[in-house]
């Protein structure tokens, strides 16, 4: 039986983010990368989170810290609220999203506008502006 994708797309994991996280496919859009990174957080796939970070910032990622965060936070839901470029033919893209999270029994809403770019033809996460 197929499980629902953590990115709350309504698709199964195998037909949504799974092929990206497992390395069988590469995201064609910035939104696909954003969704797959959300799913990677939900599933504790730290290697994918580091691999999909831009080269200039990849060395700043702390594998143990990311793993602790993934274990401490439950990713409840994701809503894409805006997209700018980020299509199959674009070099850059911006995705604004609301991530519903739960930690220590408390729910919170993480609102971020993320910037994505292509490196060697693949989408990578560059940075994000978090709204407080």
Structural class: alpha+beta
Distance between termini? 39 Å
Kindly report the average pLDDT value.
96
| Order of H and E elements | HHHHHEEEE
Low-confidence stretches: none
Range of strand content: 35-45%
Level-1 CATH class name: Alpha Beta
Number of alpha- plus pi-helical segments = 5
| Helical coverage, percent range | 25-40%
Order of adjacent strands in the largest pleated sheet: 1-2-3-4
Q: State the CATH topology.
A: Nuclear Transport Factor 2, Chain: A
Main beta-sheet annotation:
4 strands, antiparallel
Overall shape: globular
State Rg. Answer: 14 Å
Number-wise, the strands total 4
How many structural domains does the protein architecture include?
1
CATH architecture annotation: Roll
Structural overview:
- The chain is an alpha+beta fold and 132 residues long.
- It has a single domain (13-131), classed as Nuclear Transport Factor 2, Chain: A (Roll), CATH 3.10.450.50.
- 29% of the residues lie in helices and 36% in strands.
- It has 5 helices and 4 strands; from the N terminus they run αααααββββ.
- The chain has a 4-stranded antiparallel beta sheet with strand order 1-2-3-4.
- Strand 2 (92-103) and strand 3 form a beta hairpin.
- The longest helix is centred in the N-terminal third of the chain and has 14 residues, at 30-43.
- The model has no long low-confidence stretch (mean pLDDT 96).
């Amino acid at each position: 039986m197929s499980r629902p994708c953590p990115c709350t797309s309504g698709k199964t994991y195998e037909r949504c983010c799974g092929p990206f996280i497992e390395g069988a496919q590469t995201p064609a859009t910035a939104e696909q990368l954003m969704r797959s990174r959300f799913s990677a957080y939900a599933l504790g796939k730290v290697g994918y989170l580091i691999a999909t970070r831009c080269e200039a910032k990849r060395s700043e990622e702390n594998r143990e810290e990311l793993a602790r965060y993934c274990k401490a936070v439950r990713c409840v839901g994701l809503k894409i609220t805006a997209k700018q470029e980020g299509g199959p033919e674009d070099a850059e893209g911006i995705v604004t999203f609301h991530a519903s999270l739960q930690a220590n029994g408390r729910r919170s809403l993480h609102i971020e506008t993320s910037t994505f770019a292509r490196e060697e033809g693949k989408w990578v996460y560059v940075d994000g502006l978090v709204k407080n």
